[in-house]
Here is the input.
Amino acid sequence: MRAVLSWVLCFWIAAAQADTAKIVGIGASTCARFNQEIVERPDAEQDYFVWAQGFMSGALIRAPEGVDTGLDLAPPSMPLNVQADFIRTFCAKNNDQGYMDAVRALYHRLRGPSL
Here is the structure.
């Protein structure tokens, strides 16, 4: 799992360095596909979540100086299992959106309230 996360993170960083980055990998799936896959193969959710953690880590790395400094992607107030529940619930309610939209919503939740 750690190797997959590292690969996803490295790939995302390389893609983000281009002028326009295309989201690729399992996270480019729709919520509808995610919902179907986790029913057919429950362990697929872990694959998706690894992608989500890599995507959010990449977003932190690429954030401008002073933006999201100190953001904890696994805070005690929202452990990983709760984050996975958040994504699952988002996709269940938003079947027509992308899995990445669910991850983006999670990232904004982890950031806390906007000032």
